[in-house]
Specification:
Elements (H helix, E strand, L loop, with lengths): L4 H15 L3 E9 L2 E8 L2 E8 L6 E5 L11 H10 L3 E7 L5 E9 L5 E9 L6 E6 L4 E5 L35 H7 L7 H8 L5 H10 L7 H14 L6 E5 L2 E5 L9 E4 L3 H8 L3 H10 L1 H28 L2 H13 L10 E5 L8 E5 L6 H44 L3 H13 L22 E4 L5 E5 L2 H11 L5 E5 L6 E4 L6 H13 L9 E7 L3 E2 L10 E2 L3 E5 L3 H7 L2
Antiparallel strand pairs: 1-2, 2-3, 3-4, 5-6, 6-7, 7-8, 8-9, 10-11, 10-12, 13-14, 15-16, 16-18, 17-18, 17-19, 19-22, 20-21
């Protein structure tokens, strides 16, 4: 747990310095568990993200863009009614709890001064955002309702008095002395890090392990010094917000964690770090929930075609006997005088063999010699036809597998909007029944919205993240002289540089984007082809997003997520 009480203290100070005294101009609720307040402070607009996502709960200033629903949820409407136009007078933390309180003041519908509080409780799956009438300490509403049946201590419901969560009565580590640490730790009991978490407020297991690590051999002499030294830095906000990557697992905190033996990336402020850490994580979680049925369908269709190919391959092996059937038929015809009805086989000379070897031909004893020969000619024709048909079916099934593997890759990087476009594509291709088909009111199909990036030298780069976007980008938006990129023989996005003579560095950056939005995202030295759009063609009857191209050159890049974030427009 990185977002502990001491981390909450630090982000509260950062938010207070940036937002206090600002005016709440807009309020959005892009998703079920997230609120975005647009606050005008210090001469510019800031987006304050309040998330109570079960896994990604947090409060931060964000630069990320969120697409808002056409119809705002009821809680969002209520917040707009009570908070839009209000002044953010103060932001403070409740003790060292993971709770942040926004004190706001403004005039209500009657023109009277009104004071409200917006409380953000960051408590994992129990996280909540609660709007309170400060004068009466009464809950006006919350993003999640909690009855006494679920929580015997307090109910989070409109009209209820707001109560704080039960106090944990732990010692404040920022006020502790070395003697206080010694009093609260039993060195004979072991598990020193767990004891620190149990005794001191605001400490996460992650921070406790770091303090024990800094102490070296944790004893009565080293541990108190390490504890007080670390608390002094936290107390005076000597922060170095960092993301640690240890063996593929990411974590963050106010400073680098030396006990994790990890790669460290540091940031200038906490909000910037949180934007980077949560980049795509919450979105992928939402996409997984909303696109679960699509993901299952796509995987099933791919697996079904793979099984079909296996069966067809076996059929093809059987059909390879066509030449043998033809040979038997011709040799029997040439040797009818040597065959009699009732024979089960006959051995004849193979005239087509340079060495004139002998061949044994199985016979049906119930048929005449000429009927046996005709039987082999018939089998030859059937096998010959089957081989052609089966080969065509294998090619078609392989195309289906490639198509669905492309969709699987697109699902991994899709936004909620992208998911709906993929769903619409599957409806149009006949894989899903259109639920809107029988409704008289036709839906207006919006143009796909492309992801936009800007290279280091200011050149625009456009990206299609699904087949509809790829077709739209390559066939409608891009100019013939623009440069088009795609991972070589690997499912991925179409990428277009809006220039006919981009710099080498821009080509490498666009290639990095192409490799990042491909099946090879986690690979290194990924081959990316690039050519002018004029050399890219969509064959007649081809699947959505499928193209052929020539006159290409190839570069090799390793996907870099940090670069992708920097280039995002």
């Amino acid at each position: 747990m990185s977002f502990d009480g001491l981390f909450t203290r630090a982000i509260t100070k950062e938010l207070s310095e940036a937002l206090r005294g600002g005016r709440i101009n807009k309020i959005h609720q892009p998703f079920k568990n997230e609120i975005v307040l647009v606050i005008r402070a210090g001469g510019k607009n800031h987006k304050l993200l309040l998330s109570v996502h079960p896994s990604y709960a947090r409060a931060q200033i964000t630069t990320e863009s969120y697409e808002n629903p056409n119809e705002p949820p009821m809680f969002c409407m209520l917040l707009r009614k009570h908070l839009e136009g209000y002044i953010l007078e103060d932001i403070h933390q409740v003790g060292l709890e993971r709770m942040i309180v926004l004190d706001v003041k403004g005039r209500n519908e009657l023109g009277d001064l009104s004071s409200k509080q917006l409380v953000i409780e960051i408590m994992g799956r129990h996280s909540n955002i609660i709007l309170i009438d400060k004068t009466r300490n009464m809950i006006l509403d919350s993003i999640k309702h909690v009855s006494y049946a679920l929580n015997s201590h307090r109910a989070i419901l409109p009209g209820q008095e707001y109560k704080l969560p039960p106090a944990q009565n732990k010692y404040n580590p920022l006020e502790a002395t070395e003697e206080d640490v010694l009093k609260r730790v039993d060195f004979n009991a072991g598990k020193i890090d767990k004891q620190l978490v149990e005794q001191f407020a605001g400490l996460s297991p992650l921070l406790a392990r770091e303090i024990v690590h800094e102490a070296g051999i944790a004893n009565r002499n080293t541990l108190p010094k390490a504890f007080i030294s670390r608390m002094e830095k936290i107390k005076t906000y000597q922060n170095e917000p960092s993301i640690m990557n240890a063996h593929g697992k990411e974590m963050f905190y106010l400073f680098p964690m030396t006990h994790t033996s990890s790669e460290v990336q540091s940031f200038s402020n906490i909000s910037e770090m949180l934007d980077r850490f949560y980049f795509g994580k919450a979105q992928r979680d939402r996409v997984k929930q909303q696109g679960n049925d699509l993901e299952r369908l796509i995987n099933n269709e791919r697996d079904k075609n793979k099984k079909k190919i296996d069966k067809l391959q076996k059929t093809l092996v059987d059909a390879q006997n066509a030449e043998e059937y033809q040979l038997f038929g011709e040799l029997l015809t040439a040797n009818l005088y040597a065959v009699e009805k009732g024979m089960t086989s006959v051995e004849v000379i193979n005239y087509y063999d340079e060495n004139a070897g002998m061949v044994t031909i199985p016979l049906d004893p119930q048929k005449s010699p000429s009927d046996n020969a005709q039987r082999y000619f018939t089998k030859y024709q059937k096998a010959k036809t089957a081989r052609k048909i089966v080969q065509e079916q294998i090619e078609k099934a392989n195309e289906e597998v490639l198509y669905f593997e492309t969709l699987i890759q697109q699902m991994e990087t899709a936004s909620i909007k992208d998911i709906e476009e993929i769903r619409q594509e599957l409806i149009e291709e006949g894989y899903i029944r259109d639920r809107q088909k029988n409704k008289s009111k036709k839906q207006v199909v919006a143009k796909p919205v492309l992801d936009q990036y800007v290279s280091s030298d200011g050149t625009d780069i456009l990206v299609g993240k699904n087949n509809k976007q790829n077709d739209y980008l390559t066939n409608k938006v891009a100019s013939r002289d623009d440069v088009w990129l795609h991972t070589k023989d690997i499912p991925g996005s179409h990428v277009v540089i809006r220039s006919k003579t981009p710099s080498d560095n821009t080509i490498l950056e666009a290639a990095n984007i192409a490799s990042y939005f491909s099946k090879a995202r986690s690979s290194s030295s990924v081959p990316v082809d690039f050519t002018q759009v004029r050399h890219v063609k969509k064959p007649n009857g081809a699947k959505p997003g499928f193209v052929i191209y020539d006159n290409q050159q190839t570069v090799y890049v390793t996907p870099d997520e940090n670069l992708i974030i920097q280039l995002k427009k």
